[in-house]
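Handout, section 3.2

Students often ask what a structure token actually looks like in practice. Rather than define it abstractly, here is a full record for DNA-binding transcriptional regulator. The first block is the sequence as you would receive it.
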Amino acid sequence: MKKETLLYDMLWYIQNKKEFTAQELADQFHVSVRSVYRYISDLADLGLYVESKKGRNGGFTVLPNQILPPVLFTEAELFSLYFAIQSLTDYEDFPFKVNTITAKEKLLEVVPKEVKQKLRQLSDHFKLSIPKQAVSAPFLNELITASLDHKRLNLCYQSVKQVSQKVVDPIGIYASNGFWYLFALDQERQEPRHFRIDRIKQLSVTEEVFDTSFKLDDIEADYEPQEAVKLVAYLTEAGVKQCLENRYLHKGVQQYQNGRSELSLLIDKSDIAFTAEFFLLLGKEAKVTAPKELVELLKEKIRELGKIYL
């Protein structure tokens, strides 16, 4: 085994063990105890420091505030990292104030020259495209920190119809279609809800710690509305494609052998206003027949548009 590879393996092993003896390290890597002391000195030159303990049960303890061990990436993994970073440039706001331009340049500086050249060439032929961030999203750092610390939040939230005060337990944040969202347990409703972060007008983090079984992965779970109403809409071929791309509606798309397609599923009554905005965007590609409240809301919005254009 090459010395560089041996040192790298030792670095990982020691960082994970935290405490070890020279004999233990010698047995693990099939080297002499004398060689172990020499390798420990080499690791100190790389920034990893250990403290020796005297006595019968002596050995070594890794000192705190150590460097992270270097990580070896394959060329394919480097390409994936580079273009993942590039895809984030469409978001003006990002947790932890990540500078994606600087991050890409740092990655290019540490890769071999031939890999750097391939990355720059590939950028002319490959792009990960996502919707650009539509509006500014404040409080991203505060929200992700509160989620990690399990701290309850007080929100002043501007929904489509009104401004309201919310007490929520933050589960996590995510980006979708150019918007940032907070996934949190609404204390009043006692159910997880999605909040557009750009609509949060004020935020205060309390000292109250919560415990929850919900995780961010639960946003992919089947939605169970509290006050269910049935949504039914006839769809054109283009309407089917649009609904299949919608993370909340795609499961309700039904396509029949006679060529007819429809959308049929249960939604929460409180989501009617949000759903109306989606069907306005679909235009003539969908015709909603139920619930009655959604049909009336769509008619009202069409009349309002008519006052502007007709």
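Discussion prompt for tutorial groups: DSSP finds ten helices and twelve strands in the chain. How would you have guessed this from the sequence alone?
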